[in-house]
Specification:
The chain has one domain: Glutamine Phosphoribosylpyrophosphate, subunit 1, domain 1 (4-Layer Sandwich). Helices cover 33% and strands 20% of the residues. It contains 9 helices and 12 strands. A hairpin with a 5-residue loop joins strand 5 and strand 6. The protein is globular and about 60 Å long.
């Protein structure tokens, strides 16, 4: 049979496009996998407590967005976590500023950045989504909005955190924090509910002793997190500037759209981060992803990253993903 000429090919191209878009649909030779629901996936050891709260919402019939918010609020309120919420470390001027974002599978999203004085920036971000025409509010505007919406301000620089800051001022160890110490500055959490709804939440106090006004990837839709209800969800952790340069979480979701499983999508996104950041050996970036079938995975640059999975078959299990430069590739 002869190959079609250019005119015939262009005439048939829309049909090929439709077939490509429908690649995720079930066929006799490529059936959809059986969905596992509900599922919660979150970054780092402190994600286990967050997972437990989100799991309770999901197993009670709650929606993915409610579960995502409820989960990360646990971490925000934990004074022992030095990278999120109440226990977060300050910037180089001694001010604690918080960033957070959340998103659901329909594209609804909200975020706040450089917010001072509120333990739960994730809930302020959700209110931004629900009652304003905007996606993001920052700085004094975010604070004014939180006050107007009835959120109660709180002193965030705890005595023990203040003492750490004073030591930092005395020793002046330099600006960039070491890998996997002050640099795992987020909790990112992904949820899949019983109805098949997806959501993500991400919240942080940012890199310790950052320049005042610095905002990383966490509250940026497409960088710190991204959700598409037809595909899946992803979130990032680590050095935010590197994630921003690659639009990391959006990239992970788009790679899953192309047919890659979550772990493979995370690996390819890490490789894109490496390509965009010549100093990649000095930083950590990790991604986790959850697809609409309940399959999850992760990947990172350096050893030291882990994440927690709560599903019908994994009872809040910690997972050590492969890493590009470490021993677990």
């Amino acid at each position: 049979m002869p190959y079609p000429n250019r005119r015939d090919f262009l005439r048939q191209a829309p049909l090929f496009g439709v077939a490509g878009l429908a690649a995720g649909c079930a066929t006799a030779s490529n059936p959809e996998p059986e969905a596992v629901r509900p599922v919660v996936v979150s970054t780092w050891q402190h994600g286990q407590a967050a997972n437990a709260a989100a799991w309770e919402v999901l197993t009670s019939g709650g929606r993915a967005l409610d579960a995502a918010e409820a989960g990360v609020r646990v971490t925000e309120a934990d004074p022992a976590v030095r990278t999120v919420g109440l226990g977060g470390r300050p910037d180089r001027d001694g001010v604690v500023t918080l960033d957070a974002a959340l998103m659901d599978g329909s594209g609804r999203c909200g975020s706040v950045a450089a917010l001072e004085g509120f333990v739960h920036p994730i809930s302020v971000a959700r209110r931004v989504m629900e009652v304003t025409p905007h996606v993001m509010l920052v700085g004094d505007g975010a604070r004014d909005f939180a006050l107007a919406e009835g959120f109660t301000p709180t002193e965030l620089l705890l005595p023990e955190t203040r003492r750490e800051y004073q030591v930092w001022l005395r020793d002046n160890p330099g600006y960039r924090p070491p890998i996997n110490v002050e640099n795992h500055d987020t909790i990112g959490l992904l949820t899949l509910d019983r109805q098949g709804g997806l959501a993500a939440a991400c919240t942080t106090s940012g890199a310790a002793y950052k320049y005042h006004g610095r905002v990383g990837d966490s509250p940026l839709i497409g960088a710190g997190l991204y959700v598409d209800g037809e595909v899946g969800a992803a979130t990032a952790t680590g050095w935010g500037e590197a994630v921003i340069r690659a639009c990391g979480s959006f990239l992970v979701v788009e790679l899953m759209r192309q047919g890659h499983l979550p772990a493979e999508a995370c690996r390819l996104a890490v490789e894109r981060v490496i390509a965009k950041n010549p100093d990649y050996r000095e930083i950590q970036v990790g991604f986790i992803a959850l697809d609409r079938y309940g399959r999850s995975g992760g990947y990172c640059i350096q050893d030291g990253f882990d994440y927690a999975v709560y599903s019908p078959s994994q009872a809040n299990e910690m997972i050590v993903p492969p890493s590009k430069l470490g021993q677990h590739e």
